[in-house]
Inverse folding.
């Protein structure tokens, strides 16, 4: 292939000192490899940790909170309007915990285009009876299919089959530590006592492990109907509606809207878990900072090598200028040298980065807390590769620019007369 | 005869470390086909004059006219273009690029000029090597050549674009007697046979004596 003259000269200069070129390129390769690996690994871990929260938390949770009425009767009395009211010792009444008109709310949520899925819940405070001891816990009545689809319920089942929960009546899935405490196994029966004192026998069809020990010690799951039966409530009795939205950042706005429209309480994930977002942000920031530092260090390497090359090639630059190559030509030659080091080093770096992260992806990572994770998590986001190659070209361009400007401003007379 | 190169009242000062005039009101003309040598003692400003005339040094007062064009107020890129198309250089040191073959070294200014296709430039470069009887070196690398051979390659490179003037700064300064003879022979042949205009700076009196015209300089003036 016929290359432009300046590029051909650059190529010859590069290949004439191929060892030096290789060292510079390896510097770039190394930093891009580390950049890709680090980001893939760090964000992989991030996603895993985020998943712990996101997979099990409703984006918007609709519920009824027990609290004193906001509008006290005296405020409605016209005779006292405009006065300041002193009402002491306000208490909450025994208001209903369930969501009013729940089936209509679910129907309208399902029709909402911004909503990905809806999962109704009934939670009941109970005692698990184990011999003489009563262990407090919660039975969550869930729509099994919706939970599996929206909150990866099946992933967190460490024993048993989730479909038994909906197909066999009076069944329960216990948190693994809770089951251990109750000394029950799959197929055994547990006795559940409600706050009203009623007893129920439920068959254990599965064990559940979320990774949060305290959560698993008290939680258990049963079908909606089972829990409604335990509480002696009708099938319209729902205490929570968990909504998964399509666009996560929209959640706070939707929560506000639902609160108004359905006249209930609603909380969004951002408000409920503010600390988790901060953690994610800081971890990502650190990963990027380390990666970019690596690239800048590689940039200095290229800068040094090009600078040295220019001192070595002073004579050549002088004669090129004497025979009619202009300053911009010389600048182009050296920029081309820098960019080809950046491109070559960058592309190899991307490949090695991919390979290294693929290797890390195979390293076993077994932890009690995370039953679904078997190896270290890696995030193969193409975006990192794009940033990596862009930044390697960017760094090498600037690392090459200053030596190139220097080369282009070399005065051939000074060199030639200096001999 | 057409005037190829004209210096009009050229004055040049060095300001570092102290102000010093190196060229004072230098004026002369070189016509087509002339073989001119500039002589003078070391430090009389003859090389400085050559670099002013070559357009590489732009820091001077007065005017340089090459081929009927003033070089004053031309941009760096335009001056590079003039050097490429109209001037051939031979320096004391050969300045060949070790990364390229001899043939490619000769071709470089021609490839830059682009008035011929690459194949034609190659043929012309080879013809120039033949003219100087060094065609057998065409595929060698520049650093495999002897001093005399390198200087002959440098001359071939200077001639590749058919320059209107060839300038030399002590082209025989680094060569032994035999090679000096050869190089002078080449210059003479160029002048006699091809009517090539030549401007050679030298301190070798015997070399100068054999040229058509001698410009003698002392203390920055033509005498």
């Amino acid at each position: 292939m016929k290359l432009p003259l300046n590029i051909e000269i650059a190529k010859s200069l590069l290949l004439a000192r191929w060892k030096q070129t290789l060292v510079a390129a390896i510097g770039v390769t190394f930093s891009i490899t580390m950049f890709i690996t680090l980001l893939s690994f760090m964000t992989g871990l991030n996603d895993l940790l985020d998943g712990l929260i996101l997979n099990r938390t409703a984006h918007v949770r609709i519920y009824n909170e027990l609290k004193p009425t906001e509008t006290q009767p005296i405020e409605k009395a016209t005779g006292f309007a405009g006065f300041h009211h002193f009402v002491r010792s306000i208490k909450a009444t025994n208001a209903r915990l369930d969501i009013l008109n729940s089936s209509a709310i679910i129907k309208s949520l399902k029709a909402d285009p911004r909503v990905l899925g809806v999962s109704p819940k009934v939670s009941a405070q109970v005692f698990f009876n184990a011999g003489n001891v009563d262990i407090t816990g919660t039975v969550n009545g869930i729509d099994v299919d919706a939970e599996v689809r929206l909150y990866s319920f099946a992933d967190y089942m460490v024993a048993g089959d989730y479909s038994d929960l909906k197909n066999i009546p009076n069944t329960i899935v216990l948190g693994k530590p809770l089951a251990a405490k109750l000394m029950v196994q799959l197929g055994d029966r547990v006795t559940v006592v409600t706050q009203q004192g009623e007893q129920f026998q439920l068959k254990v069809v599965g064990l559940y492990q979320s990774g949060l020990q305290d959560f698993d010690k008290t939680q258990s799951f049963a079908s909606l109907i089972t829990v409604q039966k335990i509480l002696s409530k009708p099938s319209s009795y729902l205490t929570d509606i968990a909504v998964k939205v399509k666009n996560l950042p929209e959640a706070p706005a939707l929560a506000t809207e639902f609160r108004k429209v359905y006249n209930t309480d609603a909380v969004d994930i951002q408000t409920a878990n503010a600390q988790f977002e901060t953690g994610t942000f800081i971890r990502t920031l650190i990963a990027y900072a380390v990666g970019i530092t690596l690239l800048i260090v590689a940039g200095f390497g290229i800068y040094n090598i090009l600078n040295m090359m220019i001192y070595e090639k002073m004579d050549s630059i002088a004669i090129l200028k004497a025979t009619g190559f202009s300053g911009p030509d010389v600048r182009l030659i050296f920029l081309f040298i820098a960019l080809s080091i950046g491109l070559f080093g960058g592309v190899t770096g991307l490949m090695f980065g991919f390979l290294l992260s693929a290797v890390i992806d195979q390293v076993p990572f077994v932890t009690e807390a995370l039953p679904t994770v078997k190896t270290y998590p890696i995030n193969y986001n193409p975006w990192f590769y794009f940033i990596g190659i862009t930044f390697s070209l960017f760094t090498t361009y600037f690392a090459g620019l200053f030596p190139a400007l220097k080369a282009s401003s070399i005065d051939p007379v000074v060199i030639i007369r200096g001999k | 005869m057409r005037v190829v190169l004209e210096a009009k009242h050229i004055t040049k000062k060095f300001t570092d470390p102290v102000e010093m005039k190196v060229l004072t009101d230098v004026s002369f003309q070189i016509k087509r086909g002339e073989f001119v040598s500039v002589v003078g003692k070391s430090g009389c400003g003859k090389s400085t004059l050559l670099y002013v005339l070559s357009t590489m040094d732009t820091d001077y007062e007065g005017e340089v006219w090459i081929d009927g064009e003033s070089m004053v107020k031309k941009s760096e890129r335009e001056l590079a273009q003039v050097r490429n198309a109209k001037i051939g250089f031979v320096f004391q040191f050969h300045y060949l690029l070790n990364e390229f073959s001899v043939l490619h070294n000769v071709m470089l200014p021609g490839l830059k000029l682009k008035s011929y296709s690459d194949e034609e430039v190659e043929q012309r470069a080879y013809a120039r090597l033949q003219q100087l009887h060094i065609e057998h070196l065409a595929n060698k690398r520049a650093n495999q050549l002897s001093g005399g051979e390198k200087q002959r390659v440098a001359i071939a490179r200077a001639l590749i674009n058919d320059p209107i003037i060839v300038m030399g700064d002590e082209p025989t300064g680094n060569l032994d007697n035999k090679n000096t003879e050869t190089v002078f022979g080449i210059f003479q042949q160029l002048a006699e046979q091809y009517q090539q205009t030549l401007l050679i700076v030298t301190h070798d009196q015997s070399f100068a004596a054999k040229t058509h015209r001698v410009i003698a300089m002392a203390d920055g003036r033509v005498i």
